Amino acid sequence: MSTAQTGPGRQVCTFSVGDLTFGVDVQNVHEVIRAQRMTLVPMAPPVVRGLINLRGRIVTAVDMRARLRFPPLESEDGSMNVVVHSEEGAVSLLVDEIGDVLHVEQSLRAQVPPNLSPIVAELVESVYKLQQDILLVLDANAVATIVSVPSAA
Amino acid sequence: MTDLRELDEVVKEFLVESQDNLDRIDSDLLDLEQGSAEPGLLGSIFRGIHTIKGTCGFLGLSQLEHVAHRGENLLSLLRDGTLSATPAIVDALLQTVDAIRAILGRLEETGEEGNADYSALLTQLERLAAGEDDSAGSQASEDTSESAVETPPAATAEAETTDTGSSDTEAPPAAAPAAVPTPVTEAPHVPTVPTPPVEVAQEASPTPSPATPKAKAQPAEAEGASRSALADTTIRVDVGLLDRVMNLVGELVLARNRILQFAAHVEDSSFANASQQLNLLTTELQEGVMKTRMQPIGNVWNKFPRMVRGLCQSCGKDVELELDGIETELDRTIIEAIKDPLTHAVRNAIDHGIETPDVREAAGKSPRGRLTLRAYHEGGQVNIEVVDDGGGINLARVKERAISRGLVSAERASGLADREIAHLIFHPGFSTAAAVTNVSGRGVGMDVVKTNVEKIGGSVDVSTTLGSGTVLRIKIPLTLAIIPALIVASQGERFAIPQVNLLELVRLEGEQAKSGIERLYGTTLYRLRGEMLPLLFLDEALQLPPRAADELPDVLNIVVLQADNRQFGLVVDAVSDTEEIVVKPLGKELKSLSAFAGATIMGDGRVALILDVIGIAERASLLSHTQHNDFADERDRDKALEGDAVEPLLVFSTAPGNRMAVPLSIVARLEEVDPSTLERASGHLVIQYRGDILPLLDLTGSPMSRWEDGESPLNVVVYVDDTRSVGLVVEEILDTVNEVIEVQHGLRREGTLGAVVIQGRVTDLLDIESVLTGKTAGFFNRGKAA
Predict the structure, then answer these.
(1) Interchain proximity A58–B593, CB inside 8 Å
(2) Among B71, B99, B177, B752, which residue's beta carbon has the most beta carbons within 10 A?
(3) Cβ partners under 8 Å of residue B319, min gap 6
């Protein structure tokens, strides 16, 4: 994937959760950090994995797998924190793997498939057809909003 | 674009400055009404209004300018001695200030000055001005030679020097730049001022000695110099910036804590020295930064003289307000938080506390009431007292009212101490005011004060003497950002408990840990010096995953906490140090969790949650139960006592500390059985009893051999019904009691109907039927075996 393309488009930080490829506009990405020690929050919504200390700021970590109703990973050592800015403040998204920062061209943009499950669709701002994958660009504000997501069990 | 933004800045600055000006004018006007003869007073008021007028002329705020101008006209007549300050004039001037405030408020909100109608006020001002001297208007077009003299910058500067003579307003333009205290924001005024010449001319008119401008230039310049020297020592800082600095210092404190922890394990004296110094510096820095956020409580209080005056007028009372400790400093956030409760308390004191002058005279007091606000530091807290010398709280009436409102039962009320009765006024929905006035008396007074104060970790107390006054005492912490907290752990997770909630720590070890606590219908109680202390297990309260089967740990750490007026014990796994922690808010998505007040970062860099003690108590329905239903429950119990639910019970123990009871009505006799008379029949102990064979059921769970080989007699409760008779072997017969039986079925174990509290102790109620029908054979199994 080349980042040399210069057509109208945007820079997207990509990552994967399960078999999906997601992206967040780089402008909304605060930083990417390795798995942190987390403080559990009792009674919090199940998608909230805990709190991390981001150089003195306390940031809520949201488990994207739980959010997307994927089964938890066996070992979570590898999961990464993508700290995303939103109007609500910063949240950290726990994802499986970090990808590249891609320049995606406007021309690759596609409609959000109407039959996409609302679980995913409500988080997605736009969809891009990449060569191999379909890139789902997340809406930072939607991801940061945790509206008492029912426990998926 | 840039122009617009600059203008916004100017307007913003104008708003801030004008607020300061208006506040000062308010207090000056009140001084004036008190008959203060201070010569600079009128000049100071005049300049304040004048500054506002001048700037708004420049900003094109015509309505505001108009109002200010009329007020200024009137003031100029006062200043010249043409008029003297009558209450009517002061009233009108205060209204003018209010009108200006209202316009500024709209300006701040909408960016427009709005078009409210102030013609009545304007006419009034004009009429007053015309009262003795009608020439004010006609002078408007007088000599324009001084028009440039009245440049707002000069006036601004001077307005802030309170003690200058009125003539200083005539500083010639040359002096103005020197006098400008904050060039950045004020500079734009200068070139534009000459543009509204008419207005300037009008301003010039009231000046008393138009011939002397040049002579005055010198002192004005001197003023400017001293003023700017003052300005050099104080600066306006954006609160957001201070908050950020505060935050960073908080981080530094945490980093320091980590280094200190680390230093404790390193044996390197130079490192130890360095970390020691870091420690000291950080502490000092922290104190310094905390101080920058401190504001004198006067910032809240300075609104009160005006408010008291207004209240007095509307209530027909005469009250002298005394402010004591006005320089006492508090954190900014706390100042904000106590504004409303204090306002409420002051209103209340004037409306309900202090009597009207005739009543006071009849009572032999001075007709003028006295309301004192006092603030002082004490033990890391700030005490604020609202003291009035009014009629005091009529406790008998409070009691009556509370009973009629169903807040407390008559029986209970009769047993309340005076202080407790006085505290009833904090109960939601309580108000003693005979009439609902427009000031207070809507029944949402004191409980609001209490809730708001408690929200910031403070407490409220009231003491009163009928006929001579009331003291409302508010205790609040100095700051909210950094608090001392106790660190506890439960299931490996650390939590911080704010020290304000902490009463004491109790540690139960070994046998005590098991027998010291009593279980009652799913809740656990501990008797702390004779008081029943409800226990809450932190892990259960927070719904942490249940621990492994080995029930209670050997050691029980009970953190005794105060939530509202209720005490409870929080059982935690471990108690470590108290630490100063930096309170950080939780993300929005977690704010709804009432159990947590925030989070903090510990010395090792990990996050720990701060427990909201009141929230936890509420969650566990400790509070909602006691606080809201306290009195109702009492009533219910009283009712129950009157009914026929009382039944005599026989209380016995089946093991030391294990109390059981049966209704006395089913007990035929109590016998002491000689061990030598024991016999066995088909694996059961039996005795011959009144010509019959009486099977014995051992409730103590001891092996049969204990009785057969023992020497001491067995305590047997003989039960007889139509078809059967049985002897229940118990450890000891304790008592017979008359108690209301309120069986708590949830706390039921096999062979019991549930538990009751008898003589303040948890007691199981034996289910004789199930024991006899053998359904619960397991209950006695151990007795039969061996």
Answers:
(1) no
(2) B71
(3) B308, B311, B312, B350, B354, B368, B369, B370, B371
For the entire predicted model, the pTM comes to: 0.47
Structure tokens given for B484? 């001392």
* A28-82: pLDDT as tens digits: 888 888 887 888 888 888 888 888 888 777 888 888 888 888 887 776 666 788 9
B729 and B767 share one domain? yes
Whether the CB of A46 is below 8 Å from some CB of chain B: the reply is no
- Residue B636 inside a domain? The answer is no
Residue showing tokens 């009329």: B70
Say how far apart CA B220 and CA B209 lie, in whole Å. Answer: 15
How large is the C-alpha radius of gyration of chain A? 15
Locus of tokens 């199994």 = B781
Task: Give the nearest partner residue to A56 out of B251, B544, B595, using CB atoms.
Answer: B251
Give yes or no: residues B563 and B704 share one domain: no
- Residue type (1 letter), B337: A
* Tokens matching residue B334: 């706390």
The answer, yes or no, to whether residue B419 has pLDDT greater than 70, is yes
Instruction: Read off the tokens for B691.
Output: 């010509």
ipTM of this complex: 0.81
Determine whether the interchain pair B247/A56 forms a contact, defined as Cβ–Cβ distance below 8 Å: yes
Residues B77 and B134 in one domain: yes
My answer on whether B217 and B122 are in the same domain is yes
Q: Which residue has the higher pLDDT, B175 or B562?
A: B562
Residue B36 CA to residue B39 CA, distance in Å, equals: 9
**Which of B491, B570, B607, B618 best probes binding to A when mutated, by most A CB atoms within 10 angstroms?**
B607
Q: Report the residue count for chain A.
A: 153
CA angle, B565 as apex, B563 and B568 as ends, to 5°?
Answer: 50
Average pLDDT of the segment spanning B596-606: 81
**Average pLDDT for B393-397:** 80
Q: At B202, phi and psi to the nearest 5? A: -65, -40
pLDDT of B211 reads: 40
Are B282 and B325 contained in the same domain? no
Nearest CA in chain A to B582: A56
Domain ranges of chain A: 9-144
DSSP code per residue over B25-80: HHHHHHHHHTT---THHHHHHHHHHHHHHHHHHHHT-HHHHHHHHHHHHHHHHHHT
pLDDT tens, residue by residue, B623-656: 543 333 343 344 343 333 333 345 667 788 887 7
Higher pLDDT, B553 or B304: B304
CB within 8 A of A129, min separation 6: which ones? Answer: A108, A110, A135
Instruction: Count Cβ neighbours within 10 Å for each residue of A2-27 and write b for 16 or more, e otherwise.
Output: eeeeeeebbebbbbbbeebbbbbbee
Q: Which CATH number characterizes residue B466's domain?
A: 3.30.565.10
Contacts of B586 in chain A (CB under 8 A): 51, 58, 60
Residue B701 and residue B744 share a domain: yes
Last residue of a domain, one of B250, B274, B293: B293
Q: Is the CA virtual torsion B101, B102, B107, B110 positive or negative?
A: positive
Architecture, CATH, for domain A9-144: Beta Barrel (2.40)
Neighbouring residues of B202: CB distance < 8 A, sequence distance ≥ 6: B69, B140
Q: Do B397 and B418 have their domain in common?
A: yes
Which chain A residues are within 8 Å of B606, Cβ to Cβ? 37, 39, 53
Strands A89-95 and A57-63: parallel
